[in-house]
Amino acid sequence: MTNRDAETSGTGERSRPAHDSSAQKPERFRGRGRGGNREQLQVPEAEFRSYYGRPIIKAPVWKNPDVPLYLFLGGMAATSAGLGALGGATGRPTLRRTGRLAAAAGAAGGTVFLVHDLHRPTRFLHMLRVFKPTSPLSVGTWILSPFATVAAAAAASEVTGLLPRAGKAASTVSAVIGPALGTYTAVLLSNTAVPTWHEAHRELPVVFAGSAAAAGGGMGLVGASVRDNLPAARLAVAGAAVELAAGEFMERKLGLLGDVYGKGRAGTLMKASKACLAAGAVGAVLGRKKRWSAALSGLALMAGSALTRFGVFDAGIASANDPAHIVVPQRERIRRRQATTEEGAAPPDRAFA
Amino acid sequence: MTNLFDAFRGTTPSLSGPLPDPSTDAGWSGDHPKRVGFFTDTSVCIGCKACEVACKEWNLVPDDGTDASDLYRLTGMSYDNTGDLGASSWRHVAFIEDVRPHGTATPAHGGQQTGFLPSGLPAVHGGNGHTPRDAATAPPGPEGSGAGTVDLLALLPDGGAHGQQTPDDERDVRWLMSSDVCKHCTHAGCLDVCPTGALFRTEFGTVVVQDDICNGCGYCVPSCPFGVIDVRESDGGAHKCTLCYDRLGEGLEPACAKACPTNSIQFGDLDELQAAADARLAELHGRGVHEARLYGRDPDDGVGGDGAFFLLLDEPEVYGMPPDPIVTTRDLPEMWRNAALTAVGLGAAVAAAFWKGGRR
Prior knowledge:
The structure holds two protein chains of two kinds. Chain A is mainly alpha-helical. Chain A has a single domain (66-319), classed as Up-down Bundle (Formate dehydrogenase/DMSO reductase fold). Chain A is 65% helix and 1% strand. By secondary structure, chain B is α+β, with helices and mostly antiparallel strands. Chain B is globular, with a radius of gyration of 25 Å. In chain B, a hairpin with a 6-residue loop joins strand 6 and strand 7 (238-239).
């Protein structure tokens, strides 16, 4: 229950839970709305036991805002690279310029945040010692490094006007790598023991891809001229729609584990995100042809995308700090397994008679 | 880490499932030493914390210093002022004061747990007598026949007593003590996700962090299904039990096992420990301690079995351990597939946004 207090108090930060006296007994903790006295003896909604109500797994030590910002910037850069390359190929100079610059800025900024997030930043190059497919962070490093390199080259060519053919080639390569950068971050979060992230491993890539499209398209709406911004508007609106739908689907499908999206800071962030995305998408459809309304819509879409990343991040922290998120689903898993094994088989609770 | 791409095609079980020899799977040649581990028999743990102290002393583990706001860092959780495993706590003794009225039956494993009451409720008399219950040595009371249930309504009117007002001789206190430690999983999530290769599988089948490689990315921390490894604030590196890798190399047993006065912590070759644990469990069951169960012993469990496993006297979550842990990378091949498909979709969406958009 201490973790619930921390969670609803909205700090969202990883903290060692306080030990209030009501958490002292390893009695059967009673699920929703604990923290009071004996009136909770009735109708437990999700009854589970725990060690003084303490978290079972460790919440991520990743820094906030570094990591959610990286998730946002990486997504924005991922789709901006594509808009830049195709904008160049279809004769939309302002979209090309915006896409190339945003891809480079997003990749560079994201890299800075990632390095700053390390607890030993001077050793960031150790990331490049190995390539490990079992580590999404390693795979991500090997996606981000070449992406940042070619995106920076394309942007340099754009700004200086030098080597336009090489700039175009670099831009094309960044557009090809981009989508991987936009979706691998979902695996990065899902491939942890954090229940709300792990159990969403089917939906989270779609949410993040939608978020990346909304951010990159939003950036295009901000930077490109009215003459050039149609593809950016289309991408942004489609991205926002996918992000809204997939996010809603994910929260519902998570069931008990989705409760962290409905309360605390994560709940607030997700609500704000949905409002921004919806407003931005409507604005992009109606106001694309005016420079100021297009830019405003783009900003709203980018804000919505960023808020989603912050919300998902906070939801994971809250989930990791809640022992119910570990015990209740795992008990249910054991119960289901027990139900499917016939009588007399070895008990699934690892009791070897 | 061999055969990773095979693993991704699902042709080898090296991301999950039983694995007889994790060291060879990690690339050690066949003549490496046998896999070693801990068997922690909590039924004989006396909560002396000698393991915690010995571990700190030998491994030079600093003060965990994270609860500075607490008065003398007292948690109020019985005698447990360590709290949990972490970067600077590689052994952690859990204390559970299981207080019940007299005559309430033990919630046998898998059975109804009607006897579980918060402390302080008055005793129910007329149960199965007043035999003292020490789970390790004495059989619990008979179950069923109403002795295992408590009539809450009968308790309430004349009760009114709370907490310490109930005389001690009307309560049964069962002490559960357990020295927790890194499980040295057969399929270790921390090792799988480490992007620098700082975490590695030793020739003894254990999992160790190379401190000079770790760059403090923290990915191992949320990837451990047991909440063991953590990043230390003072030096920024991830730390956890090494199973005294330095001592193993010299043929010594780990410091905690050496210091344990009751042999609750047993060190040895894993296959021998497993046989000893099975025998101990059979012995306890024979003596009527039906709540005894092994945790982390099963090579078919979600992490392929633990290198450090336990004999517990209650459900794992009571000790702060997950009841059914699964290594997160079990689902990683599917996650990569999903992400790759989504990436293709994202690329297509970007291209489609230019469809018939004029220009050029």
